[in-house]
Structure formats: C-alpha cells, structure tokens
Amino acid sequence: MAYPADYRYTKEHEWIKVDGNIGTIGITDYAQNSLGDIVFVELPKVGDSVEATKSFGSVESVKAVSDLFAPVSGKVTAINEELKDAPEKINADANTTWLLKVELVDAKQVDGLLTAADYEKFTSEETGH
C-alpha cells in the first residue's frame, strides 16, 4: 500500500495532512490492517484540545483496543461523525478516512514527523519485510 506523499506520519501509525493551519488526522493503512475489523472509534469533542504525542481517543477492533496519539497539538475543529455509525470505513480506505481536524498550535511540529518514505521504511523494519 502506498502512503500519500503529502501526508506526514507518526511511529504510532497516525497520519496528518496539513492545509493552511488545519491538520486532518487519521490512522494509516498499516494500523488498520494490524487491527483488523474496526468496530468502534472514540474521539474527542469539537472544541477540545489535543497535545502532540498524547492520546486523544481510541479505536476498537475485534482484536484489541488501541489508543490514538495526536501527531501535533491543536484544537479540535471537526470530527468525522460518519464513524459513529460506520467505523469500518477506516478499514475500507484508511488513507482517506479521517478521524478529526485540528487547528494547529505550532505548524513547525509537522516538520518533526515522518515523511511517507520514512514511514514506509519504519513499517518495513517493524515487520521485517
């Protein structure tokens, strides 16, 4: 699975796409594949703050519950309401199914995240492929 080059990635398997001062956050295809069938997503509320590297919610699959970690700090401006009733959309297309949007506190935080090539290298080292 190719990872979009215009996204940045975390070692916890979240992605962020930045447009101006808004960051759209999701989980990677690698993460959804590792989790299996996703049955529930817990997200913060609009107006909440998230802090870089800290947990902001969780995703539950038939296998496990995994924490979600913010790639950047910011204020939540939107959550993907569709995931309340259809969390499996993440399994269908993790690269385009977003979880939340945040107004960035510090855009420079994005520079510290992995590029698509770095992330691909990281996941291949993690799996040994």
Automatic annotation (TrEMBL):
Any one GO BP annotation for this protein: glycine decarboxylation via glycine cleavage system
Signal peptide limits: none
Record's keyword annotation contains Transport: no
Known cofactor(s): (R)-lipoate
UniProt keyword annotation of Hydrolase present: no
Cofactor binding: number and manner: Binds 1 lipoyl cofactor covalently.
InterPro entries associated with the record: 2-oxoA_DH_lipoyl-BS, Biotin_lipoyl, GCV_H, GCV_H/Fam206, GCV_H_sub, Single_hybrid_motif
Protein origin, superkingdom: Bacteria
Keywords from the UniProt entry: Lipoyl
Pfam families with a match to the protein in the record: GCV_H
A GO-annotated cellular component: cytosol
PROSITE patterns: BIOTINYL_LIPOYL, LIPOYL
Function: The glycine cleavage system catalyzes the degradation of glycine. The H protein shuttles the methylamine group of glycine from the P protein to the T protein.
Quaternary structure and partners: The glycine cleavage system is composed of four proteins: P, T, L and H.
Protein known as: Glycine cleavage system H protein
Encoding gene per record: gcvH
